[in-house]
Amino acid sequence: MLMEPLILIVDDENSIRKFLRVSIETQGYKCIDADNGSNAIMLTISQNPDILILDLGLPDMDGVDVIKKLRTMSQIPIIIISARGHDREKVEALDAGADDYLTKPFSVTELLARIRVILRHKSINEIHTEKENEIFKINNLIIDTDKHRIWIEDEEVRLTPNEYKVLVLLAKNHGKVLTHKFITDNVWGSTGIDDTQSLRVCMGNLRRKLGEDPAQPKYIITEIGVGYRLIDEQ
């Protein structure tokens, strides 16, 4: 019998922890919780949860510092829930190693959907741990990283090397928000130069070749002021 996924909820407000715990456990998941950063780190090490839901405003340390400490010892998926809604703060948390970010107040339905996406990715990654070459299918888009080829339905799409790198990076992290810095560091390299404009141009050309309308995206979602994400595989 498969074990239920274990989710760690970290928030200094008891009422929020209880509400989230009830909402999540009704979906068949198990929950544990903590009210500060130190306990969050301790429980992550001792209980090895599948997902960490983390508030940034904790009494003993900032949530971003919790992320940084955990990333030295664990790759646990981290979903941020925070009242901090400024783009700079979202980028800081995502660059520190968070996987997703929801601003309070948020829809529990959306949080549960984000949890399902992360668990699905986690399961796929565990199955394909030894497999470097993958095929991704997102709606009518097919990305074959073995053959380095892209198709939309039966028509092959020709991309420049950087356009291909951006698309594959998004595909390997589909459903996850990637910041501008993360993408530019991985595609152009960490040069210390702000390549955000290069990324915007590249993304515009990539979307045009995919036949995508940015106002009604089928593949690439813009997280304004933060970065981009590829929708989850269908």
UniProtKB/TrEMBL annotation:
SMART domains cross-referenced by the UniProt entry: REC, Trans_reg_C
Subcellular location per the Swiss-Prot or TrEMBL entry: Cytoplasm
SUPFAM superfamilies: C-terminal effector domain of the bipartite response regulators, CheY-like
Alphabetical list of CDD domains matching this protein: REC_OmpR_KdpE-like, trans_reg_C
Keywords noted in UniProt: Cytoplasm, DNA-binding, Phosphoprotein, Transcription, Transcription regulation, Two-component regulatory system
Pfam families reported for this sequence: Response_reg, Trans_reg_C
GO MF: identical protein binding; phosphorelay response regulator activity; transcription cis-regulatory region binding
Protein name: KDP operon transcriptional regulatory protein KdpE
Origin species: bioreactor metagenome
